[in-house]
TrEMBL record:
Binding site for Mg(2+): D22, E209
SUPFAM superfamilies: Undecaprenyl diphosphate synthase (SSF64005)
Organism: Candidatus Enterocola intestinipullorum
Name of the protein in its database record: Isoprenyl transferase
List of catalytic residues: D22, N70
Subunit composition and interactions: Homodimer.
Domain of life (superkingdom): Bacteria
Residues annotated to bind substrate: 23-27, 35, 39, 67-69, 71, 73, 190, 196-198
Cofactor binding note: Binds 2 magnesium ions per subunit.
Biological-process GO terms, alphabetical: polyprenol biosynthetic process
Length: 248
């Protein structure tokens, strides 16, 4: 097996990697287990990839854990996911503190059960001063929800006469997104062989490199993660310019 870690150019690491962690249900089915078991095993991949990202020196890791649309899943699955969130937060807090990782979340927290909200907030508060890496969990998140919330804020600022239409710039829009203090992800990974974005970070991934793999999330380990970064580093990011312009 190729050692993908050795192939990574540590001078050209993406600052921000976002991941659509997909395929827990199919992984469970393939193993003759209930879907909830797939989610439990998916947590191990979250640990592994968080550790790998922090070790490499990635500054921001955003993980799509639960979408606005996921609220429409069967009630027992939603409940299982919410209680898994609480227990995972309880278990992982000491590791986050020890490894100097700051936890943040993006999404509509108002829809979360109070226990989940409180647990999340307590972990966010207890890790707020950590510096090594930001682990950003998208929870009850969808991009259209975020963009709509941004539009509401602009409308309010306008009514309060704090801004006028000519002040609405790309920078202002970015500053009103949930990811205001983060760089845009240079790399977006989706597991499980689905080729779609599923309402994730539409504004922020305008120029991200997309990487899709058939590997199901519970099977996504460090080597798969390194492989994605190596692939990303082979790409030429032109941002609308010509090859000659970006390679000179
Ligand atoms: C991803 O795995 C986890 C969540 C969306 C919460 P899925 O549960 O979507 O797994 P599949 O896509 O059904 O296999
Ligand atoms: C996207 O996965 C959301 C998360 C990974 C949390 P889904 O499994 O919900 O997406 P679709 O339904 O395949 O688009
Ligand atoms: Mg899925």
């Amino acid at each position: 097996m190729e050692d993908f870690k050795k192939l990574i150019n540590t001078d050209k690491l993406p600052r921000h990697i976002a991941i659509i962690m997909d395929g827990n249900g199919r992984w469970a089915k393939n193993n003759g287990k209930p879907r909830a078991y797939g989610h439990i095993c998916g947590v191990q991949s979250v640990r592994t990839i968080t550790e790998a990202a922090a070790e490499l020196g990635i500054e921001y890791l955003t993980l799509y854990a639960f979408s606005t649309e996921n609220w429409n899943r069967p009630e027992d699955e939603v409940k299982a996911l919410m209680s898994l969130l609480v227990s995972t937060m309880e278990q992982e807090l000491p590791t986050l503190i020890k490894k100097d990782i700051r936890l943040t979340t993006i999404g509509d927290a108002n829809r979360l059960p109070v226990e989940v909200r409180e647990k999340m907030q307590s972990c966010i508060d207890k890790t707020a001063g950590n510096k090594r890496m930001t682990l950003n969990i998208a929870l009850s998140y969808s991009s259209r929800w975020e963009i709509t919330a941004m539009a509401k804020k602009i409308a309010e600022l306008s009514i309060q006469e704090k801004i006028s239409p000519e002040n609405v710039s790309e920078d202002l829009v970015s500053s009103l997104m949930c990811t205001a203090d983060m760089p845009d992800p240079e790399l977006l990974i989706r597991t499980s062989g689905e080729y779609r974005i599923s309402n994730f970070l539409l504004w922020q991934i305008a120029y991200s490199e997309l990487y899709f793999t058939d590997v199901l999330w519970p099977d996504f380990g460090k080597d798969e993660f390194y492989k994605a970064i190596v692939d990303y580093q082979k790409r030429e990011r032109r941002f609308g310019k010509t090859t000659e312009q970006v390679t000179k």
